[in-house]
Amino acid sequence: MAKPTKAEMTQRIARISELLLRGASRAVICQYVSEKTNWEITDRTTDRYIQKATDIIRSGAETDTAYEIGKAKERYEFLWQKALSMQDYREARGVQKDRGNLLGLEAPKKTDITSGGEKIQLTVVYKDEL
């Protein structure tokens, strides 16, 4: 049993990641590895693969918010330019509105709490008054 190359390891971890993302349990993954692959590895090695795949998935949760907002802004800019070049002003307006929402430029929505169209009268009763 030869040691896998880096490329083979990357492919194996990717396959295990895919199985985890599809909801496969450890038992299902071990069965898959023993029956459907020619990896010839032990359950302990499979556990190490599962751990590496889990670490990769977990690292995907770490988001660079500034980068993601910048990317979204650039995408909106691209879509806006495209809509204008096609003279699709309705789409351009929609893109501009969505971009404004992303950046928090829209005025906050006001919520009027009513009951059947009438204002609700709230009465505060303190514990000592009971």
Low-confidence runs of at least 5 consecutive residues: none
- Helix % is 55-70%
Read across the widest sheet, the strand sequence of neighbours is 1-2
In round numbers, the mean pLDDT is 89
Shape: flat
Helix count, per DSSP? 5
Number of strands: 2
Order of helices and strands: HHHHHEE
Main beta-sheet strand count, sense and barrel state: 2 strands, antiparallel
Please indicate the count of domains: 2
Radius of gyration: 27 Å
Structural class: mainly alpha
Care to describe what's here?
- 7% of the residues are buried.
- The protein has two domains: 6-59; 65-103.
- It has five helices and two strands.
- 62% of the residues lie in helices and 3% in strands.
- α1 (6-21) packs across α3.
- A two-stranded antiparallel sheet has the order 1-2.
- It is mostly helical and 130 residues long.
